[in-house]
Design brief:
The protein has 133 residues and is mostly helical. The protein has one domain (3-131). 65% of the residues lie in helices and 7% in strands. The chain contains 4 helices and 2 strands; from the N terminus they run H-H-H-E-E-H. The chain has a two-stranded antiparallel sheet. Helix 3 (52-66) runs antiparallel to helix 4 (95-131).
Length: 133
């Protein structure tokens, strides 16, 4: 796979994750993004620097709100004996908490994919300047 094909695949993944994030926020009654950001995400315009702060705010708000929706913890006693028991039990959420957890997962995955593409673009520009200067 060439560098361009890899960057194109990474950009396509970021666009898909951005659209999924926008849809998850719209479905969730507990999450919020400004309408401009939601419109850009649904249109596939995921590399706008204006969206960095609203998405960071969404992540911090979701992490804070998620604590209010914990029903209990899965203590791992039902895990297969051959598997390692987790050191910290997984939280079990109510329905709103599950929606928030999905939004949080998508926001983090989107942010990571977006940063990967932006870093690759910056690297390509730097390489271009180096080669042609």
């Amino acid at each position: 796979m060439t560098l361009l094909n890899s960057a194109t695949a990474d950009a396509a993944r970021a666009v898909a994750l951005g659209r999924r994030l926008g849809a998850a926020v719209e479905r969730s009654g507990s999450s919020y993004l400004p309408s401009d950001t939601l419109n850009r995400l649904s249109a596939g315009e995921v590399f706008d620097p204006l969206d960095t702060d609203p998405i960071a705010d969404l992540v911090s708000d979701a992490m804070r709100d998620l604590r209010e929706h914990v029903l209990g913890h899965d203590d791992g006693m039902w895990l297969d004996e051959c598997c390692v028991t987790p050191t910290s039990p997984m939280p079990v959420y109510d329905l709103v908490g599950e929606e928030l957890a999905t939004v949080l997962y998508l926001a983090n995955a989107f942010t990571e994919a977006r940063e990967k593409v932006l870093d690759a673009a910056a690297g390509a520009k730097a390489l271009d300047r180096l080669l042609y200067s």
